[in-house]
Amino acid sequence: MIQEDNEPTRSEAARIIAGGGIIAFRTDTFYGLGADPFNGAAIVRIKELKGREDRKPILLLISDADEVDRFIEQSSFFKLIAMGKWPAPLTLIGVSRPEVPIELTAGTKSLGVRLPDDGNVRALVRACGGALTATSANVSGQPPARTAKEVENYFPEGIDLIIDAGEVTATEPSTVLDLSGTEARLIREGAISREELADILEDSVRPL
Questions:
Q1: What are the φ and ψ backbone dihedral angles of 26, each rounded to 5 degrees?
Q2: Cis ω on the peptide bond leading into residue 87 (within 30° of 0)?
Q3: Could you tell me the CA-to-CA distances from 118 to 30, 54, 151, 188, 191 in Å, in that order?
Q4: Collapsing DSSP states into helix, strand and coil, what is residue 30?
């Protein structure tokens, strides 16, 4: 089930994703569970594996900034933040396009997207079609997996491929910024601090 991250493994991952399967891979933060974001059945499988509530949306990783338009109806403010801060461990929430599966958005009509600051991660995502789900590879309520072996311990069955890209070095999850409304809202302060966002957002960041 565990294979080293290399070109043949990425090709295998692309085949699995195209066939509606699920992979686990190291993201720019922790290990995540990847599936085709337009495959509702695969997304349901991920939620069942994690024991995740249906009302919680699942975030995406993208390989390139121009992939955003497939998923988000970008406002000028969204574009400004994305251009100024990506690539980075910064998840931006925007208004989802109508064709995005409800299994992904959980009926919220919004979606979180991130462009990782990691060339290897982006290369894997690009090989798999340009976008992958990236919800953390752990049972809901448990700590996020930091190694491929930890992923396997959480999920001895149900994942088609675990890509071993080494132990994660991140200590914080991504920062999550909601840009889907009229004001920016800092949903989670993580790897990017509130202070680091202030140069672009000025005083518009309003934590919950």
A1: -75, 125
A2: yes
A3: 12, 30, 20, 21, 14
A4: coil
204: CB partners within 8 A, 6+ apart: 183, 184
d(CA 75, CA 63): 20
| Token duo for residue 20 | 């509606």
Instruction: State how far the Cα of 35 lies from the Cα of 24, in Å rounded to an integer.
Output: 9
- Provide the 3-class DSSP secondary structure of residue 205: coil
In a structure prediction context, what are the per-residue pLDDT tens digits for the chain, which is 208 residues long? 899 999 999 999 999 999 999 999 999 999 999 999 999 999 999 999 999 777 789 999 999 999 999 999 999 889 988 998 999 999 999 999 999 999 999 999 999 999 999 999 999 999 999 999 999 999 999 999 999 999 999 999 999 999 999 999 988 999 999 999 878 889 999 999 988 888 766 655 444 4
Do residues 138 and 154 make contact, with C-beta atoms less than 8 angstroms apart? yes
Residue 19 CA to its chain's centroid (Å): 20
